[in-house]
Amino acid sequence: MNSNQLDSIIEKLLNASESHGFDGAEVMVTSQKDFEASVFQGDIDEYSISESSGLSFRGIKDGSIGYAYTEKISDVSSELLLKEAMDNLKAIDSKDQEFIFDNKESLEYKEINQFNALYKEVTNEEKINLLKKMEKEAYAYDHRVSTVKHCIFGDGNQLLKIKNTYGIDLEERSNGFFIYFNVGVTLGDEIQSGYSIFFGNDYSAVDYKAVVHEAVDKAVNLLGAQPIKSDNYSVIIENKTFASLLKAYASIFSAEAVQKGLSLLDGKIDETIGNENLSIVDHPHLENKMASRSFDSEGVPTQVKKIVEKGQLKRFLHNLKTANKAHITSTGNAIRYSYKSSVGIAPSNFYIEAGSFDVEEMVASVDRGLYIVSLEGMHAGINPVSGDFSLAAKGFLIEQGEKVKPVNQITVSGNFLKVLQSIEMIGKDLKFGLPSGASIYGSPSIKVKALTISGN
Question: Do residues 200 and 227 lie in contact, with contact meaning Cβ atoms separated by under 8 Å?
Answer without folding.
Answer: no
